[in-house]
Structures are given as C-alpha cells and as structure tokens.
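Researcher: Next entry: Mannose-1-phosphate guanylyltransferase (Hohenbuehelia grisea).
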Amino acid sequence: MSALFASNPVLDNDQPAPVPAGIEGMFAQILQAVQKSHSEIAELKQECTELRLANTSLERQVRDGLQQNHANGHRTHHSPGFMTPPGLPGSPQLRATKSPFLTTPTSAIPTLSTSPTTSTVHHASPLGDNCLVPVPNAVREIPGFYVVIPAGGAGTRLWPLSRENHPKFLLDLTLKGRSLIQATWDRLLPLSAASRTTIVAGPAHTKVIREQLPDLLPDNLFCEPGPKDSMAAIGLAAAILEKRDPEAVIGSFAADHMISGDDAFLSAVAEAVEVARKDYLVTIGIAPSHPSTGFGYIRLGDKLHISEAPNARLVSSFKEKPDARTAASYIATGKYRWNAGMFVTKASFLMQLLREYKPELAEGLERIGSVWDDEAARQKALNEVWPDLEKIPIDNAVAEPAAAEGRVAVVPATFGWDDVGDFSSLADLLPAEASQPRILGDANLVLTEQVAGGIVVPGSGRLITCLGVDDLVIVDMPDTLLVTTRARSQEVKRLVKKCREAGWKTLL
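Model: Predicted structure:
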C-alpha cells in the first residue's frame, strides 16, 4: 500500500492527474514575464538618463555659445532679445563667474557700444529664458509706463549666503553672470527704458545697486531711510512718480524673483497696463505648478471683457498661505493663482486707494513725494515723516479691501515664476547630474560618494566632501558653516534669530 501512495496518482482512465507541475510552470512563466518587464524598464530608465544628460550638455553648449556671441558683440539672425528704443545704453555684458557675489567694480563690466543713429539690442535675461527661446524682434516700450523695483529684505532663509548688507537680490544665484536685480532690470527694460525704470532700496544697498546697474539714472534710485514693508516702498515711488507725471502707470516687480518665459511675462504686463488705465489695481496671477504652502493665492472672479486684455478677470478674493490640504483643494478647482506680489496701476489711483484705506500713510507719503526732487526739503520731510509711517504690506493695506469692492483685477499668466524663498527652491533651479547634489559655486571644490539630492555652496574655497548623506543643505562660507536638510530649509530664519540673540550680529 505504501508503494502505491509513493507512485504518481492516476485517474480512473489511467491518465496522469494535472498536479502542481502545471501550476509551477505557470508561475515560472509569470516570473519570467515580470523579470523581462523589469529589464525593459531598467533599459528605458537608462535611455532616459542618457537623453537627459545629453540634453543638459547640449543646452549648456548652446547657452555658452550664445553668451560668447554676446561677449564678442555679435548677433545672429535667430538670437533672442528685444529691440530697445534708439539711443538707449545697453545693459552690461554677461560674464563668467564662479562666485554668487558680483563684486567686480563697474569699470570692469563693459557695456554694449551704442550709436546715436542706430538702435541697440536688448537681450533677454539669462535668468529668464536662458537665452534659448527666440522671440520676435520688436519695440515693446509702453508709453507712460514706469517700472518700480522694490529692493529690500535680507533673505534670511538663504543665510549665510544672503546677508543684511548683501541680500539675495544682489547675488548671482545661477552663476550665469547676472544677479537677480540685474535680471529683473534686463527683463523689464524693453517696456519702460532706463528713463522710466526706478528702484526703491535702503541706504545699505544703494552703492552696490549703482555698481551693478550703471545705466540706472541717479534720480530714479529712491532711497528709503528704513524698511517699512511693501506699502510704504511702493507708495513712496507712486507719490514721487505721480508728482513727475500725473498720468503715470506704475508696475511693481520684486528685485529677487526668478522668471522663465520673458515673452509671456512681457505680454502679461502689457495686458495689466491696459486694465490699469481703466482705474483698477491689477495683479498678475501665476499658474500654480504644485499645492505650495509658501505662497498666497488669488481666487479668480468674473471676466472683465476688455478687448486689449482678453485674459483679465476681477479678483474675487486674496487667500493667505494655506495648509497643504487647502492648497490642494484650491488647485483642484482651477480657479486659483499664486500671488506673486506684482501690481500694476495708475500712480494716482494707488494714492487714491491709499487715501481711502490708510489716510495717515497716504498723507505722509504725499508730503515726501511732493518735495522729493528738492534734496534739502526731501531730507527734512523724511526725517519728520518716515519714522512714524505704518509698516504694512500692500496686500493688507489696499489690495484686500479694494478687491472686496470689485476694484482689483488679475491677469492670469503662463510664465514660470519662483521667489527663491529658501535653499530647497534654489536647488530646484540649479542643474545637476543624475543623483547628485546641486552645486552653487566651483564644482571642483565638492567631492561626493553615494550622495543624492541636496545643495552644496562651496563659498570658503576649501574642499567639501560628502559620503552617504542625501538631501542635505551645506553652505560653507569663510566665516560660518550651515548644515541642514532641504525639508527644513524654510526654518533657517530661526537660526538667524538665534545668532542675533547670541551676539553674532556681525555674521548677519
């Protein structure tokens, strides 16, 4: 009997039964198919990696070639850029650098040669389109439009790279030879020309700003005695420009933001100007790429049906920085845009809103603006008025209450935008090889082994070596060293506060 059970079982018709051998074969086939699929996926990943590296290399070669053409004063038929009006000075040429600090004296930065009988060519900022996207050659100047660039803040989330006396808008954060404020100047110059491009800055930064922007007219640099937030800065410019030109339309654009897609940006600003002429405070809404908790949001309202500005809408409301779930729900509706803090309006209309919602602030700014071009009277007014002005953002002062009354419009835009608010967002803007950290500075000073992600800033000149650590932020400056993670880079400002409390004010 035992021999019988040891043998293969049989059916009544003496045929072998379908035993586990068939099931094992089926599993073997499945495993074989899975292994083949894994192999194909691995091959595809390898091909994608090779293509990505090849594209990065090609982009770098094209960019370097275009920048070399700029340096040699040549322009090919397909070179991108905008034509500036005849007789205007060109911006400083691009120059190679290994440091984010642009400290070369002005005399060492050659300007493009100009001729009174020929027009010069303005090239799009390398921090915008990377000089790779051609745009039509055309005069884009908007008569009566004045650019206001508030250049303030210390950029504490980018400490110790950014300092109070040398904040992030003065840094070249992509090592392409232009600081953020230079790139902002480059981007907006086609719309207003140097004669109508103004900057509001504190006394600690005016000297470096003049060095970085030699084409900036002295009368167009408005020095505020101390930081009073965005309403006082923009309101000061509005009060001065309304006195100079009662019909002035002003556009306020932060000095430390990065934009990709210069042509789309200029088109959005042109639409905003047309809406502003009809007595609206106009903002530009950025299409959100992800549910960010670091930005405020704009809820889109009804269309305005303005023929010169087909995309313009009313602003239904402004929303403060939300939590992650709320941000995701905003994006899901398709009715929200990021609030980038860009405002376009008539100077007179902004002052009218300010008189309605913040009359004391309006009165103080108008008193300063009325005597600004008289240096002695200006200083007296600043000394008497500025210290007591309210410190408040423009959103809270006028944008939010005006939106509730249907007086604020938005132009939804398609260009890329980032406020470079911390090292994590900066890392996303820098190129890197696959599974390697981003490097802001001399790559020869950074050696890594089994390190993925993160960002390293070799600012001290010494070698930095990393082994088996992912997504770190390492900022090595001559006087201090910061080590944190990308996930906690928003909290760097807490360290700045601790340094101040501990008496390390010289490092801030």
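Model: Note for the record: The chain is about 35% helix and 20% strand.
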